[in-house]
Amino acid sequence: MEKVVYYLFTFLESALSVVGIRATYEEPRYAVVERLDRGVEVRAYEPRVAVETDAKGQQDGEAFGRLFRYITGANRGEARIAMTTPVESEGQMIAMTVPVEQGTAGTMRFYLPRKVVEAGPPEPTEAGVRIVRIPQERLAVLRFSGSTAPDVRRQQSAILTEVLDKAGKRHPDPPFFMGYDPPFSIPFLRRNEVAVRLPASDT
């Protein structure tokens, strides 16, 4: 019965996010420490823990499936773990739940809820899935709604880069995408973000 309730609740969360309701999803904690032109925020994120796997690109359903299986029981203890937001992706980008991360080296991440982290995240039982710890960091973030097509992401990334350059903010790493909604969400209600990691030496 517990498993049925878990899947029903997960389905309900996904259905609500279609119309822009994300109140049930946990999001990593951050503080806005500076506001720049064009709505760009500099955020200080607390340390986070994620489950990660290698990915082959934007539509790598196998990578997403491995991570989804981890949070639905493919772990030591067979724990079922709540979805969180955002899904983060660097380089090639994905917006499925809120948010997933996909890296320049071809990685995809789900962030783990704080209660799971405090209790000790269960070890994955599937090959290619690993737990990663992300230290505190600063991100420069530009939020937008609507389409997440590659040309739109490039345009928003160019705006972010231009604002940072004008503000004299170093950003050696390329922009990445953080998606908070499934691809079938109503476009104007979507929360999309492009971001770059800022060097710790500039704090």
Task: Provide key terms for this protein.
203 residues; alpha+beta; Multidrug-efflux Transporter 1 Regulator Bmrr, Chain A; ten-stranded mixed beta sheet; 4 helices; 10 strands; 25% helix; globular
Structural write-up:
This protein has 203 residues and is α+β, with helices and mostly antiparallel strands. The chain has a single domain, classed as Alpha-Beta Barrel (Multidrug-efflux Transporter 1 Regulator Bmrr, Chain A). It is built from four helices and ten strands; from the N terminus they run H-E-E-E-H-E-E-E-H-E-E-H-E-E. It has helices at 2-17, 61-71, 114-119, 150-166; strands spanning 30-35, 41-45, 48-54, 87-90, 100-102, 107-111, 129-134, 137-144, 176-179, 192-198. Strands 1-2-8-10-9-4-5-6-3-7 form a ten-stranded mixed beta sheet, covered by helices on one side. Strand 5 (100-102) and strand 6 form a beta hairpin. The longest helix has 17 residues, at 150-166. It is globular, with a radius of gyration of 17 Å.
* Tally of helical runs: 4
CATH architecture: Alpha-Beta Barrel
What is the strand content?
Answer: 25-35%
Q: What is the top-level CATH class?
A: Alpha Beta
For the sheet with most strands, the description reads: 10 strands, mixed
Radius of gyration, rounded?
Answer: 17 Å
Q: What share of the residues lie within helices?
A: 10-25%
General shape: globular
Structural class by helix and strand composition: alpha+beta
> Topology as H/E string?
HEEEHEEEHEEHEE
User: Can you list the strand order of the major beta sheet?
Assistant: 1-2-8-10-9-4-5-6-3-7
